Amino acid sequence: MKISFSEADESFRRDVAGWLADNLRGEFEPLRFRGGPGDEHSFPEERKAWERRLAEGGWTCVGWAPEHGGRGLSISQQVIFHEEYARAGGPGRMGHIGEGLAGPTIAAFGTPEQQRRLLPGIVAGTEFWCQGYSEPAAGSDLANVKTRAVLENGQWRISGQKVWTSLAHESEWCFVIARTTPGSVGHQGLSFLLVPMHQPGITVRPIEQLTGTSEFNEVFFDEALTDANNLLGAPGDGWKIAMALLGFERGVSTLGQQMLFHNELEEIIRIARANGAARDPLLRQRIAEAWGGLRILRYNSLRMLSGPQDGSLRREAMIYKLCWANWHLALGKLAMDVLGPDAELLEGAPYQLGRLQSMFLFSRSDSIYGGTNEIQRNIIAERALGMPREPRVRA
Fold this sequence. Notes:
Layout: H1 7-23, H2 44-56, H3 75-87, H4 96-109, H5 112-123, E1 129-132, E2 148-152, E3 155-162, E4 173-179, E5 190-196, E6 202-206, E7 217-227, E8 231-232, H6 238-249, H7 253-275, H8 281-305, H9 315-318, H10 320-339, H11 355-363, H12 373-384
Parallel strand pairs: 1-4
Antiparallel strand pairs: 2-3, 3-7, 4-5, 5-8, 6-7
């Protein structure tokens, strides 16, 4: 695990910070610190334009291999880029799912033709992706998906429903886990399909949340089509590929996520000093615990990133989701307690939530999305510790 950086790395850090300072202004100034979790509905067109600006500067897909259009940066430099991006207030990435999930998975499992056809739009910031995993009866239990696909006349015909699909209404593509073997159950018979979103047979419906926003969606597939050459891997490889993709999700961008958490904690500390909450010894103790917990998340991530970058999950990676979800839940509560009575007030019309109010409400979902805390504990017990598997009862 590397917790310090060379002089060359620090020089690179200055280059990143300088570019961001030069470009996060003018038309992009309003995007600073916007568009993150709970705020993903904000400025979608402007953030798409920002993706194109990043691409012009060579700052998309920085860790991808050059043959796929990336810069091939070292892990250290990738960590620096994500940290400086968050430190500068870079907006939530519209291209995150394509760059962090779909792209690395296509690079790992796709054919050369699929890579040539699908990766350049991600690098250029012109094509955006969403994730078709969860279903109404298969949230954390991915092996229970019911969406089906049948190959007919050179096309996959897809029927089913996905839910909690972030930014589906802004995406050109969706990677979909579907059951392609009739009568199959569990992990068997699943395939990984790449599906164009703008076509008849796909309906996107927004889901309004506690925050009043609706970046999540339901997506209905009513015999939607995708070409046979948009199957990633072989029929039946869906579970293997889906698990590798989740490994990429625990990758270097986690350091950027932690810098977003750092920004939230800094805002809480600023308010505590301003309104006198910092004089409360119990609140000071909770702030100190939050600060220490965030450092632990960072060190575990660096340890996790010391392993292979092929989508496989080391044991250290298996604890990450549970750790950050619980830490962020506690931070949301801390923010409300530091705000005091102001936590329940809105400044005036149009009565929009403040930054920390929105964070608190959104953080209530941290223990659910991306794998519930209960599922994460099972993963740690069974895969990391080798404990007996929990009995599965299926109808």
